[in-house]
Each structure stands twice: as structure tokens, then as C-alpha cells.
């Protein structure tokens, strides 16, 4: 009988030179775009929201990157974001191995809500203009509306302006939905009862 030789497997093996985490993230991954976008922002307006005394807070760029990337992936729960900061390579890389808990994420989000909404709006507009996301096809009550029906169509200036207004309305609706999810999460946290079990 032939003996099967498996590759060596040791999950607890230590390495002399640890691998950089960003080597496992593709160059064209959307997480890199979020990172570059936030790095290019001027966040001086965030500084005035912090006090000079007390414990050092997490860097607002890091927190903003994590929250924007979560929003981009339709994740609005602070608890889910906290879990992802422990296990998802993209979130770990964005946070630079920092692991803020859900309360910290929620406090930051509440403190800079207006700024996050502005940055999120700018991000959607920028992604749309660069072609990363498409806003040409919209589904309303099962009806498909395309701005480019065939290759011979062209778009009038007023149509472009109207579509921009629609985009802003959509972003406003999305931000309202995010607020609803956050409110539901807060109410469920307040209603939770702590159960103690014997050890």
C-alpha cells in the first residue's frame, strides 16, 4: 500500500520575518481606493471635535476609513464592524491593527456624523465620475431605466444635471436608512438584559 505524504501543517509556527498584511490585498482592491481617498482628505475640521486632555483617541483618518469601507459594503452595525476589525484582512489593514470596540466606533460616528455624511457624498460622486460605480441603471418598483439605451444615444446637459440631483437624493435616502439602522441597533442594545450564568 502506498503511503500518502501530506504537506507539513503547523498553524502555530512562528516566522522570523513576518509578512506584511498589505501583500495579501490586491492592488486594484476597493479597500486601497478608500485608503487613498481618505489619505487625500483634509481632516482639520475633525481636530476641533477633540479635547486636548484625556486619553489619546484613535486617529480620525483610521476611524473614517473603517466606517466608509463598512458603509461601502452595506455594513452599518458597530458590532459587526468591531468583529470585522478582528477577522477581516481588509479592515485589519485599514485600521493598522488597531481594534476599537463598538462603543468607540459608535461615539466617533455620532461625533462626526455631519462630516462622515459629507465625505460619503463626496466619495460616491467621485467614484461615479471615475467610473468605479455605475449609476446609469436604476430599478424603481421593478422598472428598469437606462440612461444609455443604445450606442447612438447622447445625453443632454439638463439630463446630466437632473441625474446629479437624483444622485444627491439617493445619497440622502441612503444616509437616512443608515440612521434608521443605527437607531434600531441602539434601541436593541438598551433592551438587552445581561444574563449571568454560573461558571
TrEMBL record:
<dbReference type="InterPro" id="IPR008490">
    <property type="entry name" value="Transposase_InsH_N"/>
</dbReference>
<dbReference type="Pfam" id="PF05598">
    <property type="entry name" value="DUF772"/>
</dbReference>
<feature type="domain" description="Transposase InsH N-terminal">
    <location>
        <begin position="20"/>
        <end position="111"/>
    </location>
</feature>
<protein>
    <recommendedName>
        <fullName>Transposase InsH N-terminal domain-containing protein</fullName>
    </recommendedName>
</protein>
Amino acid at each position: 500500500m502506498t503511503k500518502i505524504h501530506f504537506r507539513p501543517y503547523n498553524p502555530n509556527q512562528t516566522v522570523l520575518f513576518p509578512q506584511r498584511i498589505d501583500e495579501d490585498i490586491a492592488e486594484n482592491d476597493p479597500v486601497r481606493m478608500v485608503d487613498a481617498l481618505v489619505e487625500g482628505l483634509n481632516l482639520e475640521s475633525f481636530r476641533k471635535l477633540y479635547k486636548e486632555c484625556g486619553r489619546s483617541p484613535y486617529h480620525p483618518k483610521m476611524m473614517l476609513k473603517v466606517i466608509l469601507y463598512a458603509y461601502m459594503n452595506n455594513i452599518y452595525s458597530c458590532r459587526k464592524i468591531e468583529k470585522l476589525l478582528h477577522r477581516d484582512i481588509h479592515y485589519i489593514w485599514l485600521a493598522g491593527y488597531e481594534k476599537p470596540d463598538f462603543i468607540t466606533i459608535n461615539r466617533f460616528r455620532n461625533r462626526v456624523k455631519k462630516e462622515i455624511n459629507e465625505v460619503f457624498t463626496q466619495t460616491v460622486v467621485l467614484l461615479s465620475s471615475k467610473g468605479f460605480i455605475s449609476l446609469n441603471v436604476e430599478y424603481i418598483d421593478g422598472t428598469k431605466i437606462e440612461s444609455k439605451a443604445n450606442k447612438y444615444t447622447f445625453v443632454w446637459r439638463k439630463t446630466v444635471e437632473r441625474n446629479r440631483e437624483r444622485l444627491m437624493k439617493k445619497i440622502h435616502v441612503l444616509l437616512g436608512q443608515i440612521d434608521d439602522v443605527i437607531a434600531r441597533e441602539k434601541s436593541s442594545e438598551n433592551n438587552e438584559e445581561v444574563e449571568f450564568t454560573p461558571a
